[in-house]
Amino acid sequence: MVRCNSIFEGSYPMEKTIEKILTNYKENGGNIVSILQDIEESFGYIPEDVVNVVSKKLDIPASRFYGVATFYAQFHLKPRGKNVITVCTGTACHVKGAKRLINGLRKGLNLSDGEDTTGDRKFTLEQVACEGTCSMAPVVLVNGKVYGKVTVDKLLEEIKTLERKTGGRQ
């Protein structure tokens, strides 16, 4: 079995997880997309060291995995927070203040430009082109729950609620 140095080693054996993914791939005739979905489901994102191990075991260049992972928006190459906040930036939401929401959330979460996830990995801020809920604009999803006609204050209050539930920020 291939050994890897990983932030996952020790807390949950990465090797066993990879073997499970590869077994599923071989038994069910999967493809690169299904492997990447399994990796993301297991680790919360697609770690480089996992891709390298799977690439070697299947004799598929890592570049093929990254080509697929970067093509589809469903895949994430960086760790995400426990709580994911998704702001719609479609036309209706844009007109109704999506940028104001994003700026307020960035400030409230102490995210600098270029950062999407808080240092304590409790929150990730994402943007999507359209949620398809234009009549509720501006729209934000917090852990998949839809909030319509939201304001920065309402969102920051929801974040405080989540922080209380998870024991605060570090």
What would you note in describing this structure?
The chain is α+β, with helices and mostly antiparallel strands and 170 residues long. It has 2 domains: 14-71, no CATH class; 83-166, Glutaredoxin (3-Layer(aba) Sandwich). It has 7 helices and 4 strands. Strands 2-1-3-4 form a 4-stranded mixed β-sheet, covered by helices on one side. It is elongated. The two termini are 37 Å apart. 21% of the residues are buried. Residues 1-11 have low confidence and may be disordered.
Nutshell version of this structure?
It is built from 7 helices and 4 strands. The chain folds into 2 domains: 58 residues, no CATH class; 84 residues, Glutaredoxin (3-Layer(aba) Sandwich), CATH 3.40.30.
Which features would summarize this protein structure in a list?
2 domains, alpha+beta, 46% helix, disordered N terminus, 4 strands, 170 residues
How do the helices and strands follow one another from N- to C-terminus? Answer: HHHHEHHEEEH
Assign the CATH class of the largest domain.
Alpha Beta
- Counting DSSP H or I runs of 4 or more residues, the number of helices is 7
Helix-strand makeup class: alpha+beta
Tell me the β content.
Answer: 5-15%
- CATH fold annotation of the largest domain: Glutaredoxin
Strand order of the largest sheet: 2-1-3-4
> How many structural domains?
2
Beta-strand segment tally? 4
Distance between the termini: 37 Å
Low-confidence stretches: 1-11
- The CATH architecture designation of the largest domain is 3-Layer(aba) Sandwich
Rg over alpha carbons = 18 Å
Label the overall shape: elongated
